[in-house]
Write a structure and sequence with these properties.
Elements (H helix, E strand, L loop, with lengths): L3 E4 L4 E4 H6 L21 H25 L10 H25 L12 H18 L4 H6 L8 H13 L1
Antiparallel strand pairs: 1-2
Helix pairs in contact: 2-3, 3-6, 4-6
Length: 164
């Protein structure tokens, strides 16, 4: 049959006019398939993906942490919420570092006069100093079993402060 192409992998016959109407490339003689190009992964794509992961992570944290409650654990809900906050902050921090390592992107200029940024940094440094000078270092780092509000939890809050 003149004017038909046979694809052995699909076992269907289509005319070359049908292929041209659909925008498909006409295969060469011998039934060779047209080349398919795969989009390459670029640093810009990785940067956008990292930004999307950070955005999704803080949105999940803002929605899930206040709603989280587990009646199964005996420690109450504060320690469980702290663990969830630390896990989500680890994901956001890793995505933020991956995006920063992927290459130059949009940068937020942090001025020395930005009061909110300076207050957040001062609070974290004062918490770090209080932890280093505390009587019980383990308790200051990880918090008590019932609350879990130690420096590690405040570090998770600082990660969200810096990434968002």
């Amino acid at each position: 049959m003149k004017g038909t192409l046979v694809y052995s992998h699909m076992a269907k016959r289509r005319s070359s006019a049908t292929l041209e109407r659909r925008g498909a490339a006409k295969p060469a003689r011998g039934g060779a398939r047209p080349k398919v190009t795969v989009p390459s992964v670029t640093t810009a794509n990785i940067g956008h993906l990292a930004d999307a992961v950070v955005e999704a992570t803080w949105l999940v944290a803002a929605l899930a942490i206040p709603l989280y409650f587990s009646a199964v654990t005996a420690t109450g809900f504060e320690a469980d919420k702290g663990v969830l906050l630390r896990v989500l902050a680890s994901v956001a921090g890793a995505a933020w570092l991956t995006g920063a390592a992927a290459g130059p992107r949009r940068h937020v200029a942090i001025r020395g006069t930005d009061l909110l940024f300076m207050a957040g940094i001062a609070m974290f440094f004062s918490l770090t100093l209080a932890t280093l000078l505390s009587v019980d270092l383990r308790l200051s780092l990880f918090g008590s079993l019932s609350r879990g509000a130690g420096l590690v939890t405040y570090l998770a809050c600082a990660v969200f402060f810096l990434t968002v």
